[in-house]
Amino acid sequence: MTSRERRIADFIEAFRVEPGSKIRLSRDFDPAFRGTIHSKKEGRRLLAEGIDLLAEYQTRLYAQHTHGVLVVLQALDAAGKDGTIRHVMTGVNPQGVSVHSFKVPSSKELEHDYLWRYGLQLPGRGEIGIFNRSHYEEVLVVRVHPELLERQRLPRSARGKGIWRHRFHEINEWERTLSRNGIKIVKLFLNLSKEEQRTRFLRRIDLPDHNWKFSAADVREREYWSDYQRAFSKVLSRTSTEWAPWYVIPADRKWYARIAAGAVIANALMEIDPRFPTIDSDARKALLEVKNALEAQAPKGAAADPFEAG
Ligand code: AMP
Ligand code: MG
């Protein structure tokens, strides 16, 4: 591990939800936390470093082609999911990345089991897939608004008292299957304070260029703040696993959230540690034959092989 990698691994420890621990958001995580980073300037440098690292690893992830990375982003409205995606992914090759935003399920989606539509959007090997909202909505918004569960047309036997316990178990098992098969799952919860959400909504109202982001529905959803805090606390307590731990990202400062999210994603790639494939001696021999043929075609005055040193 290089010292840069060590620094990143140490930095993200504070955000990790220990599997099996019982979380109460209001007590355990501070949305305004900024640890030892004191200035935006220092933050910008770190973010740039993280972005470089991501780009470097993404190329190798693609070349190795055995693993994919699924980034799960969950948060309340105005926590900065979109901005985080935009900033963290600036350096990576768009060909290797997909972003999928999950909205209220369509009637076609409701014809299927609740995990179906998420499975359809998973990243393939070599890819980084980002879920802007995810299967966790099925134990968050659906839990806070029971009428959404009604629309899922579940058989009576699947609607009983144990439904959330069952869903947590099913989600954990689904994620375990994926991770055993090479899909590394990175789960980020952007943790925003109620007061910061209020000022961000006001900003969307006050700045004309931001009006488009404002949604009256988001403000109505704010009335369920404490229900969401409870639902998130349960999700974090029950679905942070060794194979797919949650990270709680302090989101009251956008610049800090971006560094932290970038670091967690970079760390996941470091753990995969993808390498450029090397070739065996037969394949190497075949390459050398082609090389000789190409060198023989050099026009007068041109170097036979300009890449060959000496
Ligand atoms: P936005 O991300 O602001 O475009 O809003 C998407 C909306 O879709 C949010 O209000 C989510 O709560 C809602 N949503 C996402 N997934 C689900 C789901 N599985 N069931 C019900 N509503 C959902
Ligand atoms: Mg919204």
TrEMBL record:
Stretches assigned to the Polyphosphate kinase-2-related domain:
39-269
The UniProt entry, under InterPro entries, shows: P-loop_NTPase, Polyphosphate_phosphotransfera, PPK2-rel_1, PPK2-related
Q: Which Gene3D superfamilies match?
A: P-loop containing nucleotide triphosphate hydrolases (3.40.50.300)
Pfam families reported in the protein's UniProt record: PPK2
Q: Where do the TM regions start and end?
A: none
Asked if the keyword Kinase belongs to this entry, the reply reads yes
- Annotated keywords: Kinase, Transferase
Q: Which GO terms describe its molecular function?
A: polyphosphate kinase activity
An annotated GO BP: polyphosphate metabolic process
Checking SUPFAM superfamilies in the record gives:
P-loop containing nucleoside triphosphate hydrolases
Q: What is this protein called?
A: Polyphosphate kinase 2 family protein
